[in-house]
Design brief:
Blueprint: E1 7-11, H1 16-27, E2 31-36, H2 41-49, E3 54-58, H3 64-78, E4 83-86, H4 104-132, E5 135-140, H5 143-147, H6 153-173, E6 178-185, H7 191-197, H8 201-210, H9 221-231, E7 242-245
Parallel strand pairs: 1-2, 1-4, 2-3, 4-5, 5-6, 6-7
Length: about 250
């Protein structure tokens, strides 16, 4: 197993992609710390039923104190943190619209959770990795800022900021042997995507798939291998990269 002996923190792990990442990493031998504002009991139970190790922690990434409490709980339970998957984000319930008609309160909340949240998690966890002289930070970005998604400027800007954060932190943390990479998926068929598109889901699925070289919609299992790879020693000399998992929509 690729992650035997490693400890991974996954934010936004109660459902959807976060849960899929957590379960996939656990199958590869990692101990999982699952954090979310929602209850992670189902994620933790599924991992434990498969003979994995997992700890659920209540987490509000917009609060540094909450992120620090998660880091402390992870070290208290498992002794270290080897990988951080910054997955928590506002997406499902966002109201889209023309850029000048977006709600200002929603804009601020998106930046607080999607951007500041990842920064907070890094501030809480990277010092532990620095002391170990090893670690992998995986920021979950999106196709949105790379392709240029209209009518969702707040979400697109927030995910573009994660790519910028990835590149800057990769240069800053390389001396500590901490790797920082981003994964940028297209729309994945999760609860969040269904909620985001609502009654326009079927049309959106057709349009998205038609723009890909591999013309079917992404499922969670299409992404988990990339996450496991970036958390593992197989990617030990990969840093500062944005890996597109989008069926061949854009080529970097």
């Amino acid at each position: 197993m690729q992650l035997t002996g490693k400890v991974a923190v996954v934010t936004g792990a109660a459902r959807g992609l976060g849960r899929a990442y957590a379960e996939a990493m656990a199958r590869e031998g990692a101990a999982i710390v699952a954090g979310d504002v929602r209850d992670c009991a189902d994620t933790v139970s599924a991992i434990r039923k498969a003979n994995g190790r997992a700890l659920g922690v209540s987490l509000d990434v917009a609060s540094f104190a909450s992120c620090k409490a998660l880091a402390d709980a992870a070290v208290g339970e498992f002794g270290r943190i080897d990988a951080l998957v910054n997955n928590a984000a506002l997406y499902a319930n966002l109201k889209g619209g023309r850029f000048d008609q977006l709600d200002e309160g929603q804009w601020d909340r998106v930046m607080q959770v999607n951007v500041k949240g990842a920064w907070n998690c890094c501030r809480a966890i990277v010092p532990l990795m620095r002391a170990q002289k090893s670690g992998s930070v995986i920021n979950i970005s999106s196709l949105a800022p790379v392709y240029g998604l209209p009518y969702a400027l707040d979400y697109s800007v927030s995910k573009g900021a994660l790519i910028a954060m990835t590149r800057s932190l990769a240069r800053e943390l390389g001396r500590d042997w901490i790797r920082v990479n981003a994964v940028a998926p297209s729309a994945v068929m999760t609860e969040g995507t269904r909620e985001f598109f609502g009654d326009k889901l079927e049309k959106a699925k057709q349009v998205i798939a038609a723009g890909q070289s591999l013309q079917r919609n992404l499922e969670t299992d299409d992404l988990t291998g990339t996450i496991v790879y970036l958390a593992s020693d197989a990617s030990r000399f990969v840093t500062g990269q944005t890996i597109m998992v989008d069926g061949g929509t854009v080529f970097l």
